[in-house]
Write a structure and sequence with these properties.
With 243 residues, the protein is of the alpha/beta class. It has one domain: Phenylalanine Hydroxylase (Orthogonal Bundle), CATH 1.10.800. Helix content is 46%, strand content 9%. It has 9 helices and 6 strands; from the N terminus they run αααβαβαααββαββα. The strands form 2 sheets. It has a 4-stranded mixed sheet with strand order 4-3-6-5. Strands 1-2 form a two-stranded parallel ribbon. Helix 4 links the parallel strand 1 and strand 2. Helix 2 packs across helix 5. The longest helix is centred in the N-terminal third of the chain and has 21 residues.
């Protein structure tokens, strides 16, 4: 994959964002459907939110839409940066999530070096609308905070693997086949790489100490398949029990 250099900080462009959102949505989800990659969790979550495919959703509308289900507050920022992991999990544990300050262009669908609101909304928020996923993510956030405060670097390595290689880049086995679980796949053409059989690896708990984590500057090239949300909950609970 060729990386793209992004120049100065960008901000929302009201005249272009709705048009770009529509093009991004139509193109990317045609791609996702062609791979039969969309998970039942994501579909169920996005159906709860009532997202209009023709325009960029606003933070306050998303907060109102998710309120009956899991109650997150989405906070619009004027920044384009990735929080430190501990700061991210502290916000998540308080049922808060920041949204970054620009929408990528359709030409950047394959790869965008900066964190943008397309990834924030399409990659994370439909999953957070599902209570079973939200409960898992709350458990992950609380366990990460405890491990961080206890300076348990051995456990942070395992939790970083989950946060990067599963939450961002994981695949899950459903009754109808392998589906995209990682939030990156719902906002990037990296999903094509993930659905090449030669790039797929059956997850085993021995992988947790591999030191692998999400590298946003390039496609990962290997993607782990886990069995279920229950398996993920059990792994997080085991890490928590070792604190």
């Amino acid at each position: 994959m060729t990386q793209k250099k992004i120049a100065a900080q960008r901000n929302f462009d009201p005249e272009q964002d709705d048009s770009n959102w529509k093009l991004l949505f139509e193109k990317h989800f045609q791609d996702m459907q062609s791979l039969n990659a969309i998970s039942t969790l994501w579909i169920s979550g996005i159906s709860k939110l009532g997202i209009n495919h023709d325009k960029r959703p606003l933070a306050e509308d998303l907060t109102e839409a998710i309120k009956p289900f899991t109650g997150y507050q989405f906070i619009q920022t004027d920044e384009s940066k990735i929080l430190e992991q501990i700061d991210w999990y502290k916000m998540i544990s308080s049922y808060e999530m920041p949204l970054t300050c620009f929408l990528r262009t359709p030409a950047e669908l394959e790869y965008c070096d900066e964190p943008d609101i397309w990834h924030d909304i399409m990659g994370h928020i439909p999953f957070l609308a599902e209570k079973s996923y939200s409960d898992m993510y709350q458990s992950l956030a609380r366990t990460y905070i405890k491990a961080y405060e206890a300076n348990r670097q051995d456990l942070l390595v395992e939790l970083d693997f989950i946060g990067g290689m599963i939450i961002e880049l994981g695949l899950v086995r459903e009754s109808s086949g392998i589906k995209a679980f990682g939030s990156t796949f719902y906002s990037s053409s990296e999903v094509f790489e993930a659905f090449k059989p030669e790039n797929q690896i059956e997850f085993h708990t021995s992988h947790l100490q591999s030191g692998e984590s999400y590298d946003r500057h390039s496609f990962q090239g290997k993607y782990y398949i886990f069995q279920s949300l229950e398996q993920l909950n059990n792994i997080i609970a085991d890490i928590s029990n070792r604190l």
